[in-house]
Amino acid sequence: MSDPSHITYTENLQKFLRLPQGGKLIAEYIWIDSEGGVRSKSRTLDEKETPYVPAELPMWNFDGSSTGQAPGENSDVYLQPVAVFPDPFRGAPNILVLAECLNSDGTPNKYNHRHECAKLMEAHAEHKPWFGLEQEYTLLDLNDRPYGWPKNGYPAPQGPYYCGVGAGKVVMRDIVEAHYKCCLYAGVKISGTNAEVMPAQWEYQVGPCEGIEMGDHLWISRFLLHRVAEEFGAKVSFDPKPIPGDWNGAGLHSNFSTKEMREEGGMKHIEAAIKKLEGRHAEHIAVYGEGNEKRLTGRHETGSIDTFSYGVANRGASIRIPRECAAKGYGYFEDRRPASNADPYQITGIIMETCFGAVSE
Ligand code: ADP
Ligand code: MN
Ligand code: MN
Ligand code: MN
Ligand code: MN
């Protein structure tokens, strides 16, 4: 913010943002790229009396050869609108449009994990699957150094930073606050936020969301975070182990329940699901994020990447049953394995597949 290489004129921008739009709106089409990032571009649509739903929005396309999503000689990737949100940056009537990427022959693009996830959610919808994801992330300066860390060296050891209050304990709270408000405005089901164990690391939670909505809302929340941080001149890192050594990594704890688990006697359904997860540990780890082996060491509140474990209130296990749920005998469980950079469609998809079976073509 005080970095002279980063100058924005947000105040000057305000008077332009207030100008009438002549019956038009701006739709920001957002998609997931080949590196787990988000990309977006804008187009003009007619303003309508009623809010746009995905089926009313035009398909679009982009140059996939510029994003590593298609070869140069057949570069068009189609954007299929799948969810719409109010745009907190431009305000009403402007919208954010989450889109799935399709190849020119209509098949899902290699990095489109939503397609498969949506099929699994639909096939097993009667279980009313709820998810709540805890997105951890680290704020970096433009030189890729965690914000507020000394130029040469390290901050004092972990301890005062988790849920910290006060100068020297937390940094960039403005970004966290702005992002929270953006999520609420956009209708993203953000459920809370807290400063994390490593300085410059934060978490927010999204959920409970049912079915495919989990991935949709988490991806839009990530877009909003990158976009807010851009205005403050900060970078968002979803690296699962941004700083080696005695510094906590970053995860995407995934809380899960079904209708049966949430009812009286639900614990037997929770235990049955955990047994199934145990049998497919390696398959889950394979889609739970890149570089996760640096984080899942069995230290720093993680279970080891090689062994599956579970326990009540155990933050060193793969799966934690919250104390309150164990006491009540029903509720949900927490899969602590996913890394901060994992794709929520892949996480929620494989949990459904493991618990209820694959879907045939
Ligand atoms: P932790 O104690 O692990 O830090 P958090 O409070 O950060 O837990 O996150 C808990 C998450 O669990 C929230 O996203 C919340 O929406 C979600 N959650 C709560 N109840 C359920 C449920 N029945 N099914 C699925 N997710 C749930
Ligand atoms: Mn062009
Ligand atoms: Mn949490
Ligand atoms: Mn956390
Ligand atoms: Mn957690």
From TrEMBL:
Keywords (A to Z) from UniProt: ATP-binding, Ligase, Nucleotide-binding
Domain GS catalytic: 113-361
EC class name: ligase
SMART domains for the chain: Gln-synt_C
Chain ranges of the GS beta-grasp domain: 25-106
PANTHER family (UniProt xref): GLUTAMINE SYNTHETASE, GLUTAMINE SYNTHETASE 2 CYTOPLASMIC
Name of the protein: Glutamine synthetase
